[in-house]
Every structure is written in structure tokens, then in C-alpha cells.
Amino acid sequence: MDSKSLLCFSILCFSLLPELSGVVRVSAGRGSHRHRHRERRSSQSLGGGELWNSNPRKLFVFGDSYVDTGNNRKPAAKSWQYPYGVTFPGKPTGRFSDGRVLTDYLAKYLKVKSPIPYKWRKVGYGQLKYGMNFAYGGTGVFNTFVMSPNMSTQIDFFQQLIGELTFTSQDLQSSVALVSLAGNDYSVYQATDGSAQGWQPFITKVVNQLEVNLRRIHGVGVPKIVVTALEPLGCLPSSTVASSFQQCNATENQLVNFHNMLLQQSVAKLNSEVKDASASTFILLDLYSSFMAALNNKGDHLGNVKFENPLKPCCVGVSSEYSCGSMGSNGEKKYTICEDPGAAFFWDEVHPTQHGWFAVYSALQANLKQF
């Protein structure tokens, strides 16, 4: 979600507030030596479990930078530039974080390895046995400012591989799909003369297309599809910088809740269409509540890991014209990094640190165990 820096739409969206009451949410439960120590602890704490009775053997991922593990262009994308990847594995791997992202934690929960990015698909069958990641940082349900494939195109890639028998129907029978995106769509809408009156129909349009795409993935043959609710965009550092990282933007989060309410309705509708299903085929993973649980508890549920100021990013540009990873014309760093990324929830202006993602994953445990 590179461009998930949405929004400064507090005034623009005021007229939508009456429609946003009574929102329904899925509940969620609650390279130095120092870096290596935290990395070991995080690796040991990834956890395990089963999302449903029959363990899946493949994970297919569709979305943006919250789940991208290396599809963006190398070395142009900042996810391929230092200090991204400084905590894990110690160098940039195309992940928009200092280490692991949501895909890695869900893969571990499902007891499979994080699937190979689509751009590396020609490396051989041995690398394909865990599925494939089609997610691209900065993209959306629809086209965004970046030249990365949107969700529909990512599904096209998937279907093409099935047609080429890279993945067979038997492969799909033991698979699960992870879908996580939409924030970039709202960034683009805000930046391209979006009006207050237009927010509600545009959010509806985004969720309706998400529903079409989810139905399409299932129609290809994937038996279980996990789709994430939208995270609290009003709590991203790109938004909280206006309050010196002290408080979330409530109006932005109300709009997120409207998106999530519609998405929950779509998931219920899709499940009602599945015949002879003993359990939910479409599963809503509540990132909103899990983000808020991690931020409000300041990481207390992780024991000795606490986020002292959870809204403040760890890696920032030295001025407003620079961002994390920026370099000057002479190769000098134009960014600063906090002393300990393991004590920060956010890595840059929109993405969590590895420990931030682990806190979110921990808060999602009750949500996961429902299935």
C-alpha cells in the first residue's frame, strides 16, 4: 500500500457521517546484536494452527504492499532498497517492512512456506509447491498511480498459470487464497478530485468489484478464500503526522468502517451462494480490530515488547520531500531509523514493522480459531 497515505478528507467526508452509524465488525482477540535477538524471538513466536480441518498445501495471494513479498520492480521499488529488510533477513527482499509481512505469518499459521512471488515463477516446480504470491505494492482493486497489475489482472495471471498446467485442479483442491487490498483505491480517489458526496458510491463500487473478484477466485477452484477487512487508515503515520503522531483521524476511520460493513455483507452473501458447504468458504479477517487492539494495548499482549509511541514510524525521511530509503545524489542517506525497530509498530508512513505485523497476527488469533 505504498500510496495508502490517503486521505486528508475530514471535511470532505463530513456529510457521510449519518450513513456510518451502526457499523458491524468481526471481532478480534486481543543488523545489530539487538536486532538479531529480536529476530530470533519473533521467529520462535510465529505460532501454528489449522484454519480448517484439512490442512491446505498451497497459498495464493492477491493484493498490495501489505502482502507483497517481492513482486515490485527491482531495484526501482523502495522495498528493494536498504533499510527495508534490515530485521529479516538482513537485506531488502521486496517486502515493504523491516522484515516479515502478513503473508509470512498466515503462511506459517497454515504450516506452509511463504509462496514464491509471481515474478520468480520460472525458477522450477520445487519453488511452486507452496503456491504463488501475485500481490504488488501500490496496486488496488482498480488501477492506481503505479504501473502494477490491479486485482483483476492478478487473477488473470493466476488463470493463465492454471491454463498452462503450472497448477492443476488437484493443486487447487488443497489451497487457500489470501486477498488484501483497497486502501490505494481510496488514495487515488482522494487525489483525483473526489467529492464528499462521491465517497459512499465509490466505496460501494470498490466493494462490489471485490465481491466479483472473490467469486471469480472461487470459481477457478480455490475452496477457501480469506479476505482482509480494511485497516484503520486514519491511524497510519501518513495521517497521524498532522497530530504529531498522537491520535488517529476518526473521520477517515468511519469511512473505513463503512467499507468494512459492506465487505462483511458481501462475504455473507457469497457464503450463502455456496451449496453444500459445511463451513464458511469466504472468511473475513478483521485487520481493523486487530490493528486497533495492537495500537491501543501498545503491544502489552506480547509480554516484554511494547510500542512506546505506536503511531510514530521508525524509518522517516530527513524532511518532507524524502521518505524511508531515500538517497541523495551523492549516495548519502536522506532518512533516519529509530534505535530499535522491534519497539516500533509502524516501519514507515504506512507499513507496520515485522513486530507490528506479529502484534496484529497475535490479535487475530481468536478470529483465526473461529475457522
Write the layout of secondary structure elements.
Blueprint: H1 33-44, E1 58-63, H2 102-109, E2 116-117, E3 131-133, H3 151-163, H4 169-173, E4 175-180, H5 183-191, H6 199-220, E5 224-228, H7 237-240, H8 250-273, E6 282-285, H9 287-297, E7 315-317, E8 335-337, H10 354-363, H11 365-369
Task: Write up what this structure looks like.
This is GDSL esterase/lipase At5g03610-like. Belongs to the 'GDSL' lipolytic enzyme family. InterPro entries: GDSL, SGNH_hydro_sf, SGNH_plant_lipase-like. One of its GO terms (biological process) is lipid catabolic process. It comes from Cucurbita maxima. The chain has 371 residues and is of the alpha/beta class. It has one domain (14-307, 361-369): Rossmann fold, CATH 3.40.50. The protein is 33% helix and 9% strand. The protein is built from eleven helices and eight strands. It has helices at 33-44, 102-109, 151-163, 169-173, 183-191, 199-220, 237-240, 250-273, 287-297, 354-363, 365-369; strands spanning 58-63, 116-117, 131-133, 175-180, 224-228, 282-285, 315-317, 335-337. The protein has a six-stranded parallel sheet with strand order 2-3-1-4-5-6. Strands 7-8 form a two-stranded antiparallel ribbon. The protein is globular and about 55 Å long.
